[in-house]
Amino acid sequence: MPVPRLHPRTIEAVKERADIVDVVGEHVVLKKKGREFVGICPFHDDSKPSMTVSPAKQFYYCFSCGAGGNSIKFLMEFQRQSFGDVVLELARKYQLPVETVEGPQQERLRQQLSRRDKLHRALALAAGWFRGQLRTPVGANALNYLTEKRGLSEVTLESFELGYAPEQWDGLLKHLQQVEGLSAELLEAAGLVVARKGGGGFYDRFRHRVMVPIHDRQGRVIGFGGRSLDGSEPKYLNSPETDVFEKGKHLFGLDRAANAIRKDDRAVVVEGYFDVIALHAAGVTNSVASLGTALSSQQITQICRCSEGKRIVLNFDADGAGVRAANRAIGEVEQLALQGQLELRVLHLPSGKDPDEFLKDHGAGDYRALLDQSPLWLDWQIQQVLEGRDLSQADQFQQAVSGLVALLGKLPQSAVRTHYLQQVAERLSGGQGRLALQLEEDLRQQVKGQRWHGRSSRHEQPGEASQRERSEAEILRLYLHCSNHRAAIRRELRQRELEDFALQHHRLLWAAITDLEETNLGAGRLEAISRGTDSGHDLEDIELPRLLTDQLLLENSALVARLTPLLEPGEVQLAAMAKPLLQLRGTTAALERQKSLKRCRHLLEAWGSQRLETLERCIAALIEEERQQPTESVDMEMRIEAMFEELNSDALRFQELYYSERKHIGHLDQQRCGGFSGQDVIPA
């Protein structure tokens, strides 16, 4: 619908209400610097905070690219929207009256904006009905679960507005239709009811579940989380995405935790609703939870807006799924953490307990003490690399070194990198001083050559991004539909270090696959399959396409649409999978080759930045040294060669790495073209 001409009063009201720090802070992590805020400019390829946001002047300006203006100008540039669209969006956000110069258009616009109000009203009425059901005889078991098993007080039940959805097909539907006069179509749009197949009416989405309302920052109900009481799956069922509920943009508990986060200058992010509820009940009111998805950059930005020091502690479960969730969250903010734009820590509670369990056994004091001692994200990741490895075994020692080099390679040349190199060398050496010094120097050389993580867009050539997307999609399609080769695919991905997919929707799909397989086989067996010590025949019995479709439809319907070509391939795609193992080898080799090519470009650039010391300089230095301190006759040629290698060690190291990488690319080309020997073929 074309945007009507807005009345000047509406435009002025929006300008007055839309705070520049609030608007820019939703899209850029801002850090207070004196009276202003600074952040990474989103309008050019920025690596350092060059954008300044002034609350006093209500103005932003980038000293690198020259972008600047007020709140409306920022959103016009950032979202590529028209002036009218931005003003309307801000008016809706701040609930400001919209006036236009044309009456009929104004009325239609008001109707469009009022739809969201109707959804909020329906959700609020549903929350009230659920609370009422908890206090009836049908809700007795649910109330007992909350008070006895969960140990929640009446104050906590009321504070979080907990309720119960009865075991009825249409209890909520009938109440909201007959008593409140709401249409079934509106309730479906709010995510409260589901249309029956074949068009035979609607039924309640939530049945026989403890109901936890989810609020936005303004305290309005936008959705629900339902906890199963009879063991039926899924254990937790969330509302679907609606016009007022986007999981990746909201955090459970942030409406009540924002002030506590500001006061403590720290946010605690946990996994579950009841972890947040238990923490708030124990007085740790600066805690929030993600909504059944990996922590997104938008959610992290919201948290950072509440904390001046941008301090976040991730307290996820200590199981495999929790570790992966922590690593995914770290991946979202890694660059900001490396640049000092926020402080990220990770807390894993003793004995693998979640916050709810820990608080029952130990109390809030012990929990706060552990929070204060939680390690920085990089220290935690280093510990994860070393966890469970026997460093006396050569293969495990080498695996640890490779993992540590990859982590430390993310750090720029600084005192921080030197600190971590020393720390890691001491741990690897087992306290042997001389060995620690040797290991530190060896790690330093490896990190210099490998300070690159394989995905830098700076070294990417045109077309490589689309090629990578096609290759990753092929691998996932093979995994989903060639079930008898899943173990082989996992081994190949582990061997080539390709398990961490580059594209976000592919990473989310792979994480969902892994969660399902861990549920069926256990994390230990899945790890053994990836290492090649378990045949993994059981993997082929898991109906991944069906299970994933059902799960994603409930949790992330938008992602299902994007992944449909993988979950439901066409005839041409199925025909292309006639020789899955050969296709796998060629595709993984292509992905690895792409990473190697970018690494070559990086090494050439690094080598080109080195200042080479010539032989003449070496000879002159030795002659001067000999003149000042004459020594007995020595092999001058050997001394010159040794000095040349010492002075140019970095450049020579880059040359060696480049040569080795080019040889590896030749081997990968053979694999891609099918010219590899029989011993290279993946066993069926």
UniProtKB/TrEMBL annotation:
Cofactor info, note text: Binds 1 zinc ion per monomer.
Keywords of this entry: DNA replication, DNA-binding, DNA-directed RNA polymerase, Magnesium, Metal-binding, Nucleotidyltransferase, Primosome, Transcription, Transferase, Zinc, Zinc-finger
Spans annotated as Disordered: 448-469
Residue ranges of every copy of the Toprim domain listed in the record: 265-350
UniProt subunit comment: Monomer. Interacts with DnaB.
Family, per entry: Belongs to the DnaG primase family.
Identification of the protein by name: DNA primase
Provenance organism: Prochlorococcus marinus (strain MIT 9303)
